[in-house]
Amino acid sequence: MQVKDGKLDLAMNEEELKSIARALVAPRKGILAADESFPTIKKRFAAIEVESNEENRKAYRELLFTTEGIEEFISGVIMFDETIRQTTKDGKPFAKVLQDTGIIPGIKVDKGAVSMANFAGEKITEGLDGLRERLAEYKSLGAKFTKWRAVITIGENIPTNECIDSNAESLARFAAASQEAGMVPIVEPEVLMDGGHDIEKSKEVGRKTLKSVFLALGRHKVTPEAMLLKPSWAHPGKDNPQKSSDEEIAEATLNFFKEVLPDELPGVVFLSGGDSPEDSTLHLNAMNQIGSANWELSFSFGRALQELVLQIWGGKEENIKLAQESFYKRAKLNSMARAGEYRKEMETG
Fold first, then answer.
1. pLDDT tens digits, one per residue of 41-58
2. Catalytic residue from among 18, 29, 203, 230
3. Statement: the pTM of the whole predicted model exceeds 0.90
4. Alpha carbon of 220 to those of 163, 184, 301: distances in Å?
5. Out of 169, 188, 190, 296, which one is annotated catalytic?
6. Residue 348 pLDDT
């Protein structure tokens, strides 16, 4: 945040934020989401029979952040509160490690989704209380951008307008506070894949959710050129036996995006939403092959970048090099999908 004559130079600050937002969606690059909460990372570690303690979490994140050459494909990393305070074995803060290789450090700032009072089956994300203070601290620790996740569930008689609008309002308040603090907000309204709905229902809920989100962002005077959107794609529910092709998913998603997203938005960084690493890359590739979007179409993957990395590492130091090679390859494949150049046979190439 720039200061001029004792006052915030908002124009200068806004230009810096726009520059960071554009850098995060630079051609052929995307974001690593390494912001798993304690319960989530515990589940991931349990799958490879590794204890989720601070030492192991730190060792694993260091493996990711110090992978040689990863800056070719990764523009930014979203960290968790614990992670942004940690250092490498030789005492270098993780945020500094990333910055020194040209990767932009970011931070998850919400406090997680909880059950929404009086709305069975729906959730609201907490974390607005004390947000300004947390943002100031994270900025001092090196964060340049932030992320807030809202969760929208499709089911019988849900999502309700109240759930969608309440989460949209929280996302907008978070985004406004982030820009005020001099950081680029990544707004994440995730429409979950859980359930048996078809792709048309996913598309309908996605359109309605994003419309509410951008109306709220406008009310809170959030600058669209200085933020990014992290959505899910239009996708049949996991329990629906009728599957959609990558092209159908890409077309359905871009169809409603063009109805509701402002042209000024620098880019869209998709979440994988439970799809396999390969499927996530195929969806992204299909979207970029269409080539008719007004925004950069990129990725902000967590599990879709890390699944095989975790399996290879298995908590063992002697496996770090192989795990890093796997991470490098997965990031490179998604970089190719950013340009619509990915092919399925590359998985084993």
1. 999 999 999 999 999 999
2. 230
3. yes
4. 19, 15, 28
5. 188
6. 74
Instruction: State the Cα–Cα distance between residues 40 and 318, nearest whole angstrom.
Output: 25
Contact 46, 76 (CB under 8 A): no
- Residue by residue, DSSP assigns 169-204 as HHHHHHHHHHHHTT-EEEEEEEE---SS--HHHHHH
Domains contained in the chain, CATH given: 16-341 (3.20.20.70)
* Dist CA 258 CA 246 (whole Å): 18
pLDDT at 103 over 60: yes
Token pair of 326 as six digits: 């796997």
Give rounded-to-5 percent helix, strand, coil for the chain.
Answer: 50, 15, 35
Q: Tokens for 42, please give them.
A: 């515990």
CB atoms near residue 63 (< 10 Å): 19
Confidence check: pLDDT of 124 > 90: yes
Active-site residue 29, yes or no?
no
Q: Are 139 and 179 in contact (CB under 8 A)?
A: no
Residue found by looking up tokens 């080539």 in the block: 291
> How confident is the model over 160-193, as pLDDT tens digits?
999 999 999 999 999 999 999 999 999 999 999 9
Task: Tell how many helices (H) and how many strands (E) occur in the chain.
Answer: 12, 12
Q: What is the pLDDT of residues 270-314, one digit of tens each?
A: 999 889 999 999 999 999 999 888 999 999 999 999 999 999 999
Q: From CA 103, how far away is CA 229, in angstroms rounded?
A: 19
Q: Identify the CA nearest to 233 among candidates 281, 185, 168.
A: 281
Active site residue 96: no
